[in-house]
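Researcher: Here's a chain I'd like modeled. Treat it as a single chain, no partners, no ligands.
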Amino acid sequence: MFSLFVAACGWYYMFYSRAASRLSGMEGANINSVRIWLRRINGLLMFALAICFFSGFFAVDLDHPTKMTAIVWLAVCGLILALLALGLVDLRLTWRLRNSQRAQSPIDKRS
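Model: Modeled as a single isolated chain. Structure tokens:
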């Protein structure tokens, strides 16, 4: 059930999420296309993570681990690290956008 949920989230993130494209009016076209690309790759990695989770619990024998068990679970760890890295890049782009928005419209410092 967990794998199906992760796969559905990845599928939605790849094809139906429009949150990044809504930022096109606020940030440059190049940065926005990088953000959209990052989010689609993240959705693909989530879908691959769901497949690896499923195979890690049902396709390999955890009672008698083999080399394939290690490969599947290392792939799960690698995919999670890649998801985190792409998420941090997206977060950094968001911080940069926020700082540029603050610089363009300074806060009124009247008390």
